[in-house]
Amino acid sequence: MTESHETAVHAEHDHKPHGWRRWVFATNHKDIGTMYLIFSGVMFFLGGAAAMGIRAQLFKSGLELFDPAEFNQLLTMHALMMIFGAVMPAWVGLANWMIPLQIGAPDMALPRLNNLSFWILPFAGALLMSAFLVPGGAPAGGWTMYPPLMEQFGASFPMVIFAIHLLGISSILGAINVIVTIMNLRAPGMSLLRMPLFVWTWLITAFLLIAVMPVLAGAVTMLLTDHFFGTSFFNAAGGGDPVLFLHVFWFFGHPEVYILILPAFGVISEIIPTFSRKPLFGYEAMVYATASIAFLSFIVWGHHMFTVGMPVSAQLFFMLSTMLIAVPTGVKVFNWTATMWRGSLSFEPPMLFAVAFLFLFTIGGFSGLMLALVPSDYQYHGTYFVVAHFHYVLVPGAVFAIMGAVYYWLPKWSGRMYDMRLAKWHFWLSAIFVNVLFFPQHFLGLAGMPRRIADYAPQFTDWNMVSSIGGFVFGAAQLLFPYIVWRCVRSGKPVGANKPWEGARGLEWELPSPAPYHSWQEPPSEAVLAHGAEH
Amino acid sequence: MNKLSGTACDARQRGPRHSGGEAQEGPSHGARLGKWAGMLSLAAAMTGTLPAFGSGWDLLNMPRGVTNVSTRIYSLHMMAFWVCVVLAALVFGVMIWSLLFHRKSRGAVADVTMVHNTRVEIVWTTIPVLILVGMAIPAARLLVRINNNTDSELSIRVNGFQWGWQYQYLGTNVSIVSKLATSSDAASMLDSHINPRSVPHYLLDVDHPLVVPVGEKVRLLITSVDVIHSWWVPDLGVKRSAIPGFINEASFTIDPDKPGVYRGQCADLCGRGHAFMPIVVHAVSPAAFETWLKQQESAGKQVSSGEPAPPAAST
Fold first, then answer.
1. In B, residues 120-179, which contact A (CB 8 Å cutoff)?
2. Thinking of the domain B154-306, which architecture would CATH place it in?
3. Region A495-510: what's the mean pLDDT?
4. How confident is the model at residue B55 (pLDDT cuts 50, 70, 90)?
5. In chain B, what is the straight-line distance between the N-terminal and C-terminal CA atoms, in Å?
6. pLDDT tens figures, A424-450
7. SS3 of residue A400 by DSSP
8. Which of B165, B190, B207, B218 sits most deeply, having the most CB atoms within 10 A of its CB?
9. Domain definitions of chain B by residue range
10. Prediction ipTM score
11. pLDDT at residue A6, rounded to an integer
12. Contact A309 B249 (CB under 8 A)
């Protein structure tokens, strides 16, 4: 009976092409969002496979599986796949799905551009992955691609640079679309300061993307011309400066890490109020804190390179500006905490991921503060302490937020509820073993283990073994995720007319579940807006 | 529990940078807090199925090192660590309180009027600023001190290459090429079937170590012939990138009562051999150093002509 009811509902809205045309010629933001998320999931598992290889190699002292050159390829490709293939497309996918629903827009403002920005990705991803297949293998200089090392790699070098160009173009187009959509397609009455925080954080992220992706493109293009056209941007023998690359790269690189994490702040700011059954504490402070973090991200790049021999005054500047980031970030953490305070909390899977985010991202923030102190950084730089730090902010930070977001909005997308018990298993295995995986890496780094080494002295074995075991279990637990999503979409229990989460607020919850293929064709009225903002 | 004395028979002397066989050892890995022991047993219980190698469980913290700078870096690191621990205790405490007592299942009713509070928001913006200023002041002082490379008594040019280090004692004809010890090299090969634990200082031993005097300020002029490397010896508190075409300065003064062997590794990815270019520093008394340097100088003609120049860049 539910079946026939659903078919009827679908038929009403179902003006869409069928078969492959629906996807290849897609202009619907929901279809494109879905494709982004699927692409991201595929890259997450490919990048994860590389990570498993790395942890297997490091399981104990003495080379086990890979030649050091292959190991360096794995760690380079792991980072490129995870950053450009998994996390960034996941955020664009969520933006596609949620921004129109949340601001009362019928679609993204530039649907054909949207199609292009997605369809660049599979080709860029394939080009990136095929670097493994050419003679000499994939680039092995780390995702930071520092010259002159980067220029020692063979046929794959221009392929990866072209792949980065393509990924960058895709990101810029996606960002333009987000900005135009938010600026022009908000429902009447939705002023900027009434926008949900996910929309706000994405708006700021989109500006960051437009500002820095061209910088990356410039940096890698200079690498390319140094290598093939005899320029000497980074070649000291020709009057260039390898450190110039570091400056340009990190001028992109630091905003880039906020591109990966700012939308996560938005997601957490949606989930915590819902499951605290309480409005977000300090909404405006959250918006301003996000903007401050984005601004500061442009003036802290030097903290990635304290040991390259910058003048003391520059090191001081970068130390102080970096420490300053702790203030708006602290404001965010305090606001989330205050949102839970005197709330009425329940712990469905999205909330579990959000709470884990809160604790573990904060730990990553603390190690970030320690790293900001230049003298200490002289000891931390280039060690596993840094690896632990950025994995704490990226895995239980960005990745947990993405998973929380999927568990939060999946009932809205599919109209069905997933298996809560399995999702909780997925959460607990992830939350426990992500710590077994990354916490010991703090010890390893402090005790003197450099990062990106293919083999290590025997005294580092014990904590590496713990870390590897944590990695294997964490990795295996992630297989639950696509299974849970697939089962939900195929045969989950329909959520019906009610909101799946009683505390959820916002325009997306004013729509039926699943959200109709064409939603908000009539902009929501002020009454709907106000109702959406209530509990 | 603070083991600061430089006793040669410190039973917990298993650090990567100390050679067990030396007559005079550097101090142990700095203060290890008693609390770590509890964490260790917890971790050991968590991973109870692992064979109890017991060689590296106590490697948890930064070494105090053997120079004034490294000790001060260690203190700064511990200060920052404890500040973070206290802040984490406060913030996590409030979070955990909410998680425990403000649950719907306990009948908690949400206070939906609580949307913002300017006074509280000002407080939690200003207090972090004050804490940060408190941390920045000692850090800035130490930074200025570390970057003062004047008044050195000995200058050594450090030249990184793929994969090893060349040391040139300026003003002499003494030049050392320092590469991974052959015992480690053999054991590191694929399918070598040599247990790395049977190799003394696996991956942390070189054929020709850098020899320096204790108690004298040594200045390093660090560069590279091919790609970017990074010269790092944790016990000396020195890490500087070696950049082709540019010369970086760094300096250290090893405490006069801390002669010993100090080990480190390249800290910037530099290609296939990145894991295989350790740094070993022999710190000896000034008198012993002078004798050694004279010996090297007189043998210098043979050594320098016999030593191969650092190989050119190759993949």
1. 120-121, 124-125, 128-129, 132, 135-136, 139-140, 142-144, 146-147
2. Sandwich (2.60)
3. 90
4. low
5. 48
6. 999 999 999 999 999 999 999 999 999
7. helix
8. B165
9. 68-102+116-146, 154-306
10. 0.92
11. 45
12. yes
